[in-house]
Design goal:
Elements (H helix, E strand, L loop, with lengths): L1 H9 L5 H21 L8 H28 L8 H27 L9
Length: about 120
């Protein structure tokens, strides 16, 4: 067990992944808060809200790209590389779905939604 700790201390660890995941999560929260404003928006405002969500989705794509670039250039990762890939893809899918949902809400002129 002690040898394992020594090896971990000697091998480089890239902690950049955690910062990138946090950045992605903050972006998702901002997009969700923006999405909540959509039903209450004035008749002219929904397009602005959807465009803002789309810009946040592009930022999310950029973060995902940075995660994948970092993953391709890192030999020793803090968690399994496959898990990093799955998590980054899932975070990107969340933003993609919010963007698509917001666009459909405007397209179909949905003004409210029933709670589950």
């Amino acid at each position: 067990m002690r040898l394992d700790r020594i090896l971990q201390a000697l091998l480089p660890h890239d902690e950049q992944f955690f910062a990138l995941f946090e950045e992605s999560a903050r972006n998702i929260v901002l997009a969700a808060e923006t999405l909540l404003k959509l039903p209450a928006a004035s008749p002219e405002a929904p397009i602005d809200v959807v465009e803002h969500i789309k810009s946040l989705e592009h930022i999310g794509d950029s973060v995902t790209h940075r995660i994948f670039s970092e993953l391709n250039g890192t030999f020793v990762t803090p968690i399994d590389p496959g898990d990093i890939h799955v998590l980054a893809s899932a975070l990107d899918d969340i933003l993609d779905n919010m963007d698509g949902g917001a666009g459909r809400m405007v397209l179909y002129k949905i003004k409210s939604a029933r709670p589950k």
